[in-house]
Amino acid sequence: MADVSEVLMSVLSTIRVPRPGDRVHKEECAFSFANPKADGGIYVCMNSFLGFGSQYVERHHSKTGQRAYLHIKHTHKAQKDDDTNSGPGDPPKKKLTRLAIGIEGGFDIEQEQYEEEVKVVLFPDKQEVTSEDLATMPDVVRERVSLSMAGLLSADSACHTLQVQQWDGEVRQDSRHAAELIQLDNGVKIPPSGWRCEICDLEENLWMNLSDGKVLCGRRYFDGSGGNNHALLYFQQTGYPLAVKLGTITPDGADVYSYEEDDMVLDSKLPEHLAHFGIDMMTMEKTECTMTELEIAVNQRVGEWEVIQESGATLRPLTGPGLTGMKNLGNSCYLNSVMQVLFTVPDFQRKYVSNIEKIFANAPSDPTQDFKTQVAKLGYALLSGEYSKPAPDPEDDPSVTPELRGEQVGIAPRVFKALIGRGHPEFSTNRQQDAQEFFLHFINMVERNCRNGENPSEAFRFLVEERIVCEQSNKVKYTQRVDYIVQLPVPMEQATNADELQEAEHQREEEEAAGVTSSPTPRACIPFYACLAALSEPESLTDFWSSAVHSKTTASKTTRFASFPDYLVIQIKKFTFGLDWVPKKLDVSIDVPETLDLSSLRGTGLQPGEEVLPELAPPPLMTPDVEVKGILGSHGNEDDDSLYSPLLSPVLDDSIVFQLCEMGFPLEACRKAVYCTGNTGIDAAMNWVMAHMDDPDFCAPMVLPCGSSAPGSTPTETISEEHLATIVSMGFGRDQATRALRATSNVLDRAVDWIFSHLDDLESMEVSEGGRSAGESEGNREPPPGPRVRDGDGKYELFAFISHMGTSTMCGHYVCHIKKDQQWVIFNDQKVCASEKPPKDLGYLYFYRRVSE
């Protein structure tokens, strides 16, 4: 065996020192969930900085020829008793003073402490070199290796670099209204205590408007408590933007809210603004909870929802294949629940787990950035049982064993979460997310990465048939669209305990009037088939543009299944908006059945005797200076029937714009919504608003597209060559990429999402040599085939459901229940137990599989 010093000298050129921007994977193996805390520790390649468990490090050495690896091993250090959490789902014992993650006073990320053992290992002979050994080696070897070791140990882990590790809910921006705020000289002076709402006499949750000193109650909370929205309504009437929460004023500051900016803000002139109404900040004391304290209280309520977590019963822990827990990485329970369910589906098991060796063998040089590799790695970890082992009890309490607590070692999918969320404004953060939105996001990524070969998302894909009947002409229009999830409305008026609910509401009003704490409100009981009927009943369209009568009229729309998927996902639409556009969660119990027959909801298609509406588009919006020349506008040509002038604004339906503004949306966004939907009505405009609220230019002034052919089309602006090259590199043609960028205002992320959601349209644009669309020269092309869907009987059985606890999708906790071998199992992050009373009536997402005849 060669001398260690000589071996190091021979490989010295391959040993690198990490530089800023390098990704160092020292917390998780690229192909498994081995980590420094595992028995074998982790090996970090000192050239590529990729991490490997003992099972895969030799494979990497054989494939790449790399010989030098930094071996990192963590050994658990005994902890003294402190105020750490008592367990998942339990509120922290220590006092939280800040709504933050990873910041002093906030929620902790890691609390366990370890001793670290580090050495260099040289393959294939596994020769070991410690820091002490380096001291005896030549200077050039010692300096290079020591610098590399120090750099690797001090570098931030790639998992933490790729995601937002610190989240501070208290970071507030200066209000743009503070510096120039106009305060009325009306003689109003506010006493230091004894405040009441000037409209309803409420004595808590009071806000003083900083423009005129008006004291009014705040917003009504999700559960019906809080205020009566009088401060918000006053802003809508007056436009006075800033208000301070009375009872939170101290010498250090106060809660200030900007209604116009719709956020908590900082007021740089707060002492001056308060003094205007006789309030001396230096003498005030806090008597009300700040908004931060209220939000912390909500985020600590995870352990209170005993029904969904079944915490009232002693649950039997389960371990073994398919029973692996997942560590919560900081509000990642939505991801954990969705992925546990998806890898119960055989299509995902076949695609990723059965082919894992092939996927690993074909992995790129950096497998941490490869979608198929990381999904296969996660799937194998969940199904193999390799990580399904009881976790050691950190408190070493012999009376509370890991088996009784139900916790597992489980897996911490850091690399997977970072990869799936990369570039996404929400899933890249540590904030809580909507499980339904993540399910669709992940399915979308599967679609992107399975353009060729087996696509497991087909198991959920189905066609929806929409039938529209023009009530004036009785002509019909049939359309089909692809979907992956059925959204069931919750008809609250169908509650079977309506009398009890009305009595409770009456009692609540009396208790509020008497100043007594309100009694708990009973949960509404809604029949499942009432929800199904609400989905299937005809919907009235009041502003339907009929191509048969060439004008707006009324129509009815009926929705049916054009195909039934192998696996059906049903979402209960518990999250909605009140009349004041404040989001709220419906507290309902729905008797969701174990078996389901939807055969009666299959669409029939065009029936004998039905007459189809002519295929004509609604008229384009006219501008005042349009010179009509046949069908060409002032900027039209033979290939572009534009009716557009870049100089003057389009004629918009002011009534629709006004209705949207009344809902609180910005004027320019309302104008764009009406323009882009062609004056076709409030419903279409509202749908546009909800779909574009996250656009960076949502509130920006409307800029009309130069040369667009109709409202809603995209500006013929200069397309970014860099964006084009990025999309073309994904396998699409230049024309396809151009079309996607023009459809999304040249925004790359939106263009990528657009192109994958319009694959069936783009299939007609077959790419020939040079990247040009062959469809341009083929005038007689047949229409592209429809999307590939599976079809069969509409009979299903329930096999999983995901439940949410909390007041909003943006906070709270998710758990899932999955039926395995006729036994319901609860997956609550790292806890995996046999379920005693699965709360099927309180679920949010339900997963059904087709019943085999």
Beta-strand percentage? 15-25%
Number of strands: 29
User: Whole-number radius of gyration?
Assistant: 31 Å
Structural class estimated from helices and strands? alpha+beta
Please give the largest β-sheet.
8 strands, mixed
Domain USP: 324-851
Binding site for Zn(2+): 197, 200, 217, 230
Pfam families: UBA (PF00627), UCH (PF00443), zf-UBP (PF02148), zf-UBP_var (PF17807)
Active site: 333, 813
Structure, described:
- The strands form seven sheets. Strands 16, 20, 24, 25, 26, 27, 28 and 29 form an eight-stranded mixed sheet that branches. The protein has a six-stranded mixed sheet with strand order 8-13-12-11-9-10, with helices on one face. Strands 2-1-3-5-6 form a five-stranded antiparallel sheet.
- Helix 11 (346-353) packs across helix 13 (371-384), helix 13 (371-384) packs antiparallel against helix 15 and helix 20 (667-676) crosses helix 21.
- The chain is α+β, with helices and mostly antiparallel strands and 853 residues long.
- Mean pLDDT is 79; it is low at 81-103, 162-170, 296-305, 396-404, 617-649, 705-717 and 764-785.
- It starts with a helix and ends with a strand.
- The chain has 25 helices and 29 strands.
